[in-house]
Amino acid sequence: MSFTIADIRNNENLIVQHIQLAFFRFHNRIISELSVNTLLTPVELVAQAKRIVPNHYQHMLINEYIKRIILPEEFN
């Protein structure tokens, strides 16, 4: 679902909201997958998700975004 905000200065907020929603959904999916495949307590499930989700975000930033915006010789 996509919405356009009438004031174009606020459109970046919509992008941020969608990114945030994607990470909420990813976090919930991680918890769902871990709860099926492990015997972790609810507190342990949340702790694992809190570790996994930021690691994936950092991996995406380094391996997808940063590599695209800087020169290859600067990356190493």
Attribute tags:
76 residues; mainly alpha
User: pLDDT below 50 for ≥5 consecutive residues: which ranges?
Assistant: none
Mean of all residue-level pLDDT scores: 84
Cα(first) to Cα(last) distance is: 39 Å
Number of helices: 3
Protein architecture, described:
The protein is mostly helical and 76 residues long. Helix 1 crosses helix 2. The radius of gyration is 17 Å and the shape is flat. 0% of the residues are buried. The model has no long low-confidence stretch (mean pLDDT 84).
How would you summarize the topology of this molecule?
Elements: H1 11-37, H2 42-69, H3 72-75
What's the gist of this structure?
The chain is mainly alpha-helical.
